Amino acid sequence: MTAAQRMESQRDPKSDDRPERAAQRLGIEFRDLDLLRLALTHRSYLNELGISQIEAVRDSNERLEFLGDSVLGMITAEFLYRRFPRLPEGMLTAYRTALVRTETLARWARRFGLDELLYLGRGEMTSDGEIRDRILAGAFEAVIAAIYLDRGIRATRRFLRQLLIEDAEQIITEGQETNYKGRLQELVQEHMRVTPMYRTVAVSGPAHDRVFTVEVVVGGECLGVGTGSSKRAAQQEAAQSALARLAAEGITENHDRPL
After folding, report:
1. Among the options 32, 59, 65, 69, which is catalytic?
2. Euclidean distance between CA atoms 34 and 217, whole angstroms
């Protein structure tokens, strides 16, 4: 289904079977499908229908996203606490961050085909018709909240635990490998006793397709430059560049991390 066809099918959310299809894909038997319908409804869809801002807050998935974020964090923390009984608090926090980052949640949303079932405004699509990761991640959190409210904590734990068991090792490893900012901060603080600073030096491109250029500065010296479609992405690239430079100068990381 193209983005245009998907949007046309979204005109009347009460008349379609999208929540039923989502429940089937999730493997959850909902008592109240309206909760799942709410979890799939992005504010942009309501805005396009001319619904007021006050009603949009009530009828979009934003409040469920808020609740789902906390439920997801708690269950993930519990999973890690039991899975890694010898890890200190700092490492558990780093692992939780890797597990619940936007990219992971968006991937899980796509795994269940939620990207095909959202009620979403046209303006939130990328130029090639894809849905942004941050929207999919928010929808996944909202779905977690819907499961929690409808089926309770045990069902929510079972649903998430299966994902965590299947993906935890890979996600944690990938997260540690790609968290260049965190790695750079640890390295710089260990060897130089300072904290890296990031500054945006340029922003180019149209509003819907920005390109940010960021420098990472340590002790007044620029160690790396990065570009990206967001400040976060540009900072990660700058940090990666800085790590490569420091490695070339003989300043390397301690890779003795428990997994």
Report:
1. 69
2. 50
* pLDDT of the residue at 8: 43
- Write out the DSSP string of 159-191: HHHHHHHHHHHHHHHHHHHH-HHHHHHHHHHHH
Active-site entry in 141, 150, 215, 237: 141
pLDDT tens, residue by residue, 4-42: 334 344 445 455 899 999 999 999 999 999 999 999 999
The residues near 37 (Cβ < 8 Å, ≥ 6 apart) are 13, 18, 19
What are the two backbone dihedrals, phi and then psi, of residue 117, each rounded to the nearest 5 degrees? -120, 0
Residue 179: count of CB within 10 angstroms of its CB: 18
| pTM of the predicted protein model | 0.64
H or E segment to which residue 122 belongs: none
Distances (CA, A) of 193 to 55, 148, 174, 205, 223: 50, 44, 27, 37, 16
For position 257, what pLDDT does the model report? 42
Instruction: Return the higher-pLDDT residue of 9 and 69.
Output: 69
| Contact present, 141 and 72 (Cβ < 8 Å) | yes
> 148: part of which helix (H) or strand (E)?
helix 133-151
Average pLDDT of the chain, as a whole number: 83
Q: Is 69 a catalytic residue?
A: yes
13 vs 119 pLDDT, higher one: 119
